[in-house]
Amino acid sequence: MKDHLVFVYGTLRKGEKYSYYLNKAECLEENCTIEGQLYDTGWGYPALLLESGIVPVKGELYRVSSEQLKELDRLEDYEEYGANNLYERIITKVTTEKGEQEAIVYVMASIKDHFNKIDGNDWILRKK
User: Which of 44, 63, 116, 125 is deepest in the core (most CB within 10 A)?
Assistant: First the structure.
């Protein structure tokens, strides 16, 4: 069975409400980043828009099985070839302490006007 690298930046991070989805996954790095902008949706989870040249988005990098990836797809309301996905699953570059790697990341299909930018691009620190 194939393994996949997944970058998580919100409610899947350690200590957050859906972190248990990754209990059996291997955390490769807790302090890594991607280029983008995080938004607070106001619904208890963030939205990510990939953009370059701004403050990096902080997150964690995991190795997951194909079955675990399917579970994440369900959580993120993602269906391959789905027209009404809440999130899209894409591959992007992740900056780690060991250099760049490519990983899956879930990005919001569309950013709404009422979403607020998260200063510092860190979902966990926004609460402090």
Answer: 63
Helical residues (DSSP H) of the chain, grouped into ranges: 66-75
The total of structural domains in the chain comes to: 1
pLDDT digits (tens, 9 = 90+) for 5-60: 999 999 999 999 999 999 999 999 999 999 999 999 998 999 999 887 677 999 99
Q: Which residue range is the domain that position 79 belongs to? A: 3-113
| Domain membership flag for residue 71 | yes
Give pTM, 2 decimals.
0.92
Alpha-carbon distances, residue 91 vs 34, 102, 103, 112 (angstroms) = 11, 6, 5, 23
Q: Of these residues, 76, 79, 97, 102, which one is catalytic?
A: 76
**10, 16 contact by CB (below 8 A):** yes
CA distance 103 to 83: 23
Catalytic, 88? Answer: no
